[in-house]
Amino acid sequence: ASIDQLVSTVGQIDGVVSCAGSTKFGTLDELSTEDIAESLANKLIGQIALARASVPAIRDRGVIVLSSGLLSVSPIIGSTAKSVANAGVEAFVRAVALELPRGIRAVAVSPGWVGNPPADPIHDPRPFTSARQVALAYLEAIEGTMTGVTIPIGAVHPSAA
């Protein structure tokens, strides 16, 4: 309904960007089947639904940009639901890029940990991806020509090396 309202107000759109989707952290023993299903519904199915609803409204050669994340390729303990959802988003982008009409592109953006550098980098050496890096990756996805790919961001992202 929201896409229909947007189109009735502004006409066709150049594309859609999704940065939404929450998931639950917890080990397989800690998560219920319902927790996992809810995580997949929020992060994966929600973005697929947005993409599906948007296609008729997107101009020729427009773009759908979805969000995955580092945990798709580099999971940590407790990230089962998030890792699966992120990997699903990336697989969806690869597959739907083959099917989209009118030259519409599909791209996923996969940031590493986003935030400010730690106050004490010697004792807390976690590398973070800056908000600027993330914004530039989304801009690349929107303005570029690639389709069916995931743009990895961040020094700790194994795909970015």
Number of domains: 1
The CATH class label is: Alpha Beta
Helix-residue proportion: 25-40%
pLDDT below 50 for ≥5 consecutive residues: which ranges? Answer: none
How many helical elements? 4
CATH architecture: 3-Layer(aba) Sandwich
N-to-C CA distance: 41 Å
> Biggest sheet, strands in spatial order?
1-2-3-4
The main pleated sheet reads as: 4 strands, parallel
CATH topology (fold) name: Rossmann fold
Strand content: 15-25%
Structural class: alpha/beta
H/E topology pattern: HEHEHEHE
How confident overall, as mean pLDDT?
89
User: Which homologous superfamily in CATH is the superfamily?
Assistant: NAD(P)-binding Rossmann-like Domain
**Given the C-alpha coordinates, what overall shape results?**
globular
Report the radius of gyration as a whole number of Å: 17 Å
Number of strands: 4
In words, what does this structure look like?
This protein has 161 residues and is α/β, with parallel strands linked by helices. The chain has a single domain (2-156), classed as Rossmann fold (3-Layer(aba) Sandwich), CATH 3.40.50. The protein is 38% helix and 17% strand. It contains four helices and four strands, in the order αβαβαβαβ. The chain has a four-stranded parallel sheet with strand order 1-2-3-4, sandwiched between helices. The longest helix is centred in the first third of the chain and has 22 residues, at 33-54. The mean pLDDT is 89.
Short characterization:
The chain is of the alpha/beta class. The protein has helices at residues 2-10, 33-54, 80-96, 131-143, and strands at 13-17, 58-67, 105-111, 149-153. The protein has a single domain, classed as NAD(P)-binding Rossmann-like Domain (Rossmann fold).
